[in-house]
């Protein structure tokens, strides 16, 4: 009879041959074992998941049960942080989170001092068991000793509210900042009123504040400074478009000790702010107003009138003021010693004439005028007559000043010492000679830069002046000035000590030799940069005649200077401290000569662009001595980076440019 086996879930009887019945039975058993395994695995997975969930829930319950200061409202956390003792403790607390930093930066120095005093009073009767472990840097009250001058600078991308707040918190534990400069701002997270307020609250002794290119600072930030920093003395605001008269009025009312004010390119500042500064800041000594389009005669006049007793330095540039402002300066500027006027296009000749004739500038010593069409010969003559203390005059791009004005000026200026002319093209060598003939015995310095009228004259005057008082002469970038003119200058100025002839490409040895030979006092500084026609002959004559007095010689761009000049310098110069040989034709041999001169104590040596200086010079450069402070090897491509590195290691104290 055939064997029957139950197989399948439906319980059907399936007929199978005898030889297959055993096989079917074993398969069924294996299948049942696999199903049991799968069931066990699934059950264990469910159990593991449930256990993990229980663990997470338990951790969550434990975390919820743990006490946390972050759960407190800002008011409570503020009171706690206000009582944190010591600068280190407050600094560490500021690192916890931005919230803690913000709260710490909102604590005023006065509130902090009150909390520390209260804590000290409450614990004075109790012994301090940890007294022996107190750090030496902190005093008995847990405060870090005050730094006599805390100065900080934030620049570019590093200028953010977070850094400013952290800086205020840390410095606040040492009495706060005294000087702060913010130059630029982060493009997306720049300095705002919040950061400035943090510094103001923690730095009641802030005396100097500079804000340059900080576009997000507004009147609210300045108001916080005015409220928290009554000792502010110097305020410098540049390119801050959101600052207006309202902010300046707050500063004027809150900072009566202000002595210096600089405002540049602030389009929101107008007349009312300057009027308030003049009314409230009676100690104001210096004011600098540049490129403020809304500042006019009313603001400048009110400021000068109110601060007439103390205002000593005035600088006005790029303003739309008229003759009226200069008239007020001339009448009320009784304490003014330095006056700078630049790019005042709407001020005419009458304004300068009235300013001088008002006779109020009796103490004026230094005057600088740039690109002002109102400066004429008449104005110059009036300034000399009615400003008896004037010692220094700088005229730049004053195209209406001529030889006649210089002659009239020198006849009245009795204590005048220094004249600088730049791009005054109507002034000629004839006018300069007339000026030197009549100048006072105190006249010491003459500078002529880029004056196209300074050129050779056909015939020299019958009587050449002799100016023995002149010590400093600069004739720079005047292309018409050649050997003939230089020889004349040498004859009339025998007491020169410093000579700057840079950029005179037409001057040769023939013009320089008479000046060298006629100098009686002994030249100390000589600058011949760009005098491409000067050779070793002139340098040899200069060094032999003045080697004992020479301290600085610049021969940059003098392509005809060779090792022969270095041999003479090494042999005759005992006081030489600075030598510039950039782009000269000196070689390794010349460097070796300098190195061998034991009496030569160079502090600065420049060999930039000297193509003949190679790696062979490295041992000699390394033997120049401890006196060497600066070495310029830029564009000396034959030396090599490896040799530069070894030289830097040997001359570790020296600043090497390569």
From TrEMBL:
Where's the F-box/LRR-repeat protein 15-like leucin rich repeat domain?
Answer: 190-428
One Pfam family this sequence matches: DUF7885
Q: Which InterPro entries match?
A: F-box-like_dom_sf (IPR036047), FBXL15_LRR (IPR057207), Leu-rich_rpt_Cys-con_subtyp (IPR006553), LRR_dom_sf (IPR032675)
SUPFAM superfamilies xrefs? F-box domain (SSF81383), RNI-like (SSF52047)
Q: What is this protein called?
A: F-box/LRR-repeat protein 15-like leucin rich repeat domain-containing protein
């Amino acid at each position: 009879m055939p064997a029957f086996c139950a197989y399948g879930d439906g319980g059907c009887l399936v007929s199978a041959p005898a030889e297959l019945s055993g096989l079917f039975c074993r398969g069924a058993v294996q299948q049942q074992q696999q199903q049991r395994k799968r069931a066990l695995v699934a059950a264990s997975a469910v159990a593991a998941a449930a256990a993990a969930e229980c663990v997470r829930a338990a951790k969550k319950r434990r975390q919820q049960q743990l006490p946390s200061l972050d759960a407190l409202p800002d008011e409570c956390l503020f009171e706690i942080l206000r009582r944190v003792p010591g600068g280190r403790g407050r600094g560490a607390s500021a690192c916890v989170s931005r919230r803690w930093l913000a709260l710490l930066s909102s604590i005023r120095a006065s509130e902090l001092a009150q909390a520390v005093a209260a804590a000290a009073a409450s614990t004075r009767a109790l012994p301090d068991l940890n007294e022996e472990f107190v750090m030496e840097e902190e005093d008995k009250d847990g405060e870090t000793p005050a730094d006599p001058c805390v100065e900080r600078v934030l620049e570019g991308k590093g200028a953010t509210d977070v850094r400013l707040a952290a800086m205020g918190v840390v410095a606040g534990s040492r009495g706060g900042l005294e000087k702060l400069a913010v130059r630029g701002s982060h493009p997306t997270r720049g300095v705002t009123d919040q950061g400035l307020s943090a510094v103001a609250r923690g730095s009641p002794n802030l005396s100097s504040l500079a804000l340059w290119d900080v576009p997000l600072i507004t009147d609210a930030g300045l108001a916080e400074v005015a409220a928290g920093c009554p000792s502010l003395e110097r305020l410098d605001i540049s390119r801050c478009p959101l600052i207006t008269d309202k902010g300046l009025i707050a500063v004027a009312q809150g900072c009566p000790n202000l002595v210096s004010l600089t405002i540049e390119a602030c389009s929101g500042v107008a007349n009312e702010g300057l009027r308030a500064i003049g009314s409230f800041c009676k100690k104001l000594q210096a004011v600098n107003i540049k490129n403020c389009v809304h500042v006019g005669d009313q603001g400048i006049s009110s400021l000068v009138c109110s601060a007439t007793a103390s205002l000593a330095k005035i600088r006005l540039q790029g303003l739309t003021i008229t003759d009226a402002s200069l008239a007020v300066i001339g009448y009320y500027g009784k304490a003014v010693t330095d006056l700078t006027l630049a790019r005042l296009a709407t001020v005419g000749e009458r304004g300068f004439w009235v300013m001088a004739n008002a006779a109020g500038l009796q103490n004026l010593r230094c005057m600088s005028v740039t690109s002002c069409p109102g400066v004429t010969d008449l104005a110059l003559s009036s300034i000399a007559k009615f400003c008896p203390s004037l010692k220094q005059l700088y005229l730049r791009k004053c195209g209406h000043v001529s030889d006649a004005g210089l002659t009239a000026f020198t006849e009245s200026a009795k204590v005048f010492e220094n004249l600088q002319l730049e791009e005054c093209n109507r002034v000629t060598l004839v006018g300069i000679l007339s000026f030197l003939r009549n100048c006072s015995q105190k006249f010491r310095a003459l500078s002529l830069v880029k004056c196209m009228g300074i050129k050779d004259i056909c015939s020299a005057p019958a009587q050449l002046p002799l100016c023995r008082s002149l010590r400093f002469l600069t004739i720079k970038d005047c292309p018409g000035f050649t050997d003939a003119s230089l020889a004349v200058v040498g004859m009339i100025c025998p007491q020169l000590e410093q000579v700057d002839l840079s950029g005179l490409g037409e001057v040769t040895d023939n013009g320089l030799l008479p000046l060298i030979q006629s100098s009686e006092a002994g030249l100390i500084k000589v600058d011949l940069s760009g005098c491409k026609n000067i050779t070793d002959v002139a340098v040899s004559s200069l060094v032999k005649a003045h080697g004992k007095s020479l301290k600085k010689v610049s021969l940059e761009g003098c392509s005809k200077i060779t090792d022969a000049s270095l041999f003479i310098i090494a042999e005759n110069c005992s006081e030489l401290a600075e030598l510039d040989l950039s782009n000269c034709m000196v070689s390794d041999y010349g460097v070796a000569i300098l190195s061998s001169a034991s009496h030569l104590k160079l502090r600065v040596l420049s060999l930039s662009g000297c193509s003949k200086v190679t790696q062979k010079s490295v041992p000699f450069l390394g033997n120049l001595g401890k006196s060497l402070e600066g070495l310029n090897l830029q564009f000396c491509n034959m030396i090599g980076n490896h040799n530069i590195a070894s030289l830097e290691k040997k001359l570790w104290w020296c600043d090497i440019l390569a």
